[in-house]
Structures are given as C-alpha cells and as structure tokens.
Amino acid sequence: MLSLPQELTHAAANACLEQLTRGLASEAEKVVVDAQPLQRFDSSALAVLLEFRRVCARQGKSLLVQGLPAHLLDLASLYGVEDLVPRA
C-alpha cells in the first residue's frame, strides 16, 4: 500500500506524485493509497490523486483511496470530481 505524506501542498505536489509513481511498480492491479496521514493540504492533493489515477489507468491498474480526510472530500465535491477519487 502506498501512503500520502502528512503535508501535501502545491510545493510538495510534484515530489509526492513522483514518489507514488515510483511505488506503482510494486503494487497489484488494484492500487490502494492511504490518505489517513494527510494533515495539512490544499487542492494540490486532489490534483495529485487525479493525476495518479491517470498514471494507474495507463498501466492497467485501478486506484482506491482509503482514509480520505473529510475536508479533502468536501473539496472534491466542490470541484465536482468526487466520483473521480474512488474510495476504499
């Protein structure tokens, strides 16, 4: 299982996406990302998850996110992308 960091803002978004992408090779067909460690974030966290979902799809894998903070789910709903962040 892959995990998000405690802080995921614009400044850390590219590094986080790179780390998730590197970890993808060792994951099964269903990739689970643990979002529970996430404490401080902005809308960049959504951008990372959406782009990582695309990376997974290109490799024939599906993404599930567990432990998504309520505020991040609220942001996803506000932007109309909550269905694009599949939750475990």
Task: Give the SSE layout.
Blueprint: E1 2-3, E2 7-8, H1 10-23, E3 30-34, E4 40-41, H2 44-58, E5 62-66, H3 70-79
Parallel strand pairs: 1-3, 2-4, 3-5
Helix pairs in contact: 1-2
Indicate the low-confidence ranges by residue numbers. Answer: none
The share of residues in extended strands comes to 15-25%
In CATH terms, what is the architecture? 2-Layer Sandwich
- What best-fitting shape do the alpha-carbon axes yield? globular
User: Main beta sheet, described?
Assistant: 3 strands, parallel
Output mean pLDDT. 96
Order of helices and strands: EEHEEHEH
User: Given the structure, what is the number of helices?
Assistant: 3
CATH homologous superfamily caption: STAS domain
Please explain how this structure is put together.
The protein has 88 residues and is of the alpha/beta class. It has one domain: 2-Layer Sandwich (Transcription Regulator spoIIAA), CATH 3.30.750.24. The protein is built from three helices and five strands. Strands 1-3-5 form a three-stranded parallel beta sheet. Strands 2-4 form a two-stranded parallel sheet. The longest helix is centred in the middle third of the chain and has 15 residues. It is globular and about 30 Å long.
